[in-house]
Amino acid sequence: MAAFGLPGGMEWVIILAVVLLLFGPSRLPKLGKSLGKTMKAIRDGVDGKLEDEDEEEVEEKPSKKKVAVEDEE
Q1: Residue 32: how many CB atoms within 10 A of its CB?
Q2: What's the pLDDT score for residue 45?
Q3: Is residue 28 within 8 Å of 36, Cβ to Cβ?
Q4: Which of 23, 34, 50, 71 lies 20 to 30 angstroms, CA to CA, from 58?
Q5: pLDDT of res. 60
Q6: What is the DSSP string of the chain?
Q7: Per-domain residue ranges for the chain?
Q8: Which regions of the chain are under pLDDT 70?
Q9: CA angle in degrees (0–180, nearest 5) for 10-11-15
Q10: Are the C-beta atoms of 7 and 15 separated by less than 8 Å?
């Protein structure tokens, strides 16, 4: 794949070493998880899946606000 400018084996090792030095071993799982969520969101957006479809299923619940009633004299 070097003909297309994509990194090969040794380049990936160097890239991973730099990422490990920048973010540290404790942040790598969080970084991977957020990257996965981002990629899934992009893929869903490209496929045409919208979050609005999920929101239609949720019915509106009446609010629990108390209404002040004035006493009639």
Answers
A1: 10
A2: 87
A3: no
A4: 34
A5: 55
A6: -GGGT---HHHHHHHHHHHHHHH-TTTHHHHHHHHHHHHHHHHHHHHT--THHHHHHSPPPPP-PPPP-PPP-
A7: 25-51
A8: 1-3, 50-73
A9: 120
A10: yes
58 DSSP assignment? S
Please enumerate in sequence order all residues whose Cβ is within 8 A of that of 7, keeping only pairs 6 or more positions apart, or say none: 15
- In whole angstroms, what is the distance from residue 29 CA to residue 19 CA? 12
Instruction: Count the neighbouring beta carbons within 10 Å of the beta carbon of residue 60.
Output: 5
SS3 category, 43:
helix
Q: How far apart are CA 12 and CA 16, in angstroms?
A: 6
The amino acid occupying position 9 is G
